[in-house]
Automatic annotation (TrEMBL):
Main location, first listed in the record: membrane
Protein name, per record: Uncharacterized protein
A Pfam family of this chain: LptF_LptG
Claim: Nucleotide-binding is one of the keywords in the record: no
Lineage: unclassified sequences, metagenomes, ecological metagenomes
Amino acid sequence: MQIKEGTIIDLEGKKLYTYHLDSKTDRMERIILYEFMPQGDFLFPQITIARQGEFEKEVLKLKEVALYRFGKEHRLTQQGKFDSQSIYLNDQLSQKEREWKRNDELSLNRISQKIREEKARENPSSEEIKELGIEFHGRTAMPLATLLFALIAVPLGITMKR
């Protein structure tokens, strides 16, 4: 799961926002979690605010948590404060959704593998092949152009003029 600082992440019925993400430890600080409750008379999402949090496999572990639920008339109906809270996500996310990544999050090897898989299908999606091809070539064009430019420019630059 790709968590980015200052970006709303969709977690199947939940929206996660973090103000600060430590890239070394993947620990989040100042977290807001909006959970849209399917049952009950809730017009607004349940709001969970936590000081710190981190993902451990498919579990979101939050520390210093405040929970707010609003009912009709926009009034606060429930409120709670907790030292910690664990939110299990694996029940809510199917295996395919957990493995799914946007094309710009995939490695070059995975993109080329997906292109081969799509072409091998009985009814290949030309749109998907086109999108994957654009992503693959977009990532390889600049490095290869730079290398080609260096191979041409270096010999021209070192020739001695008489």
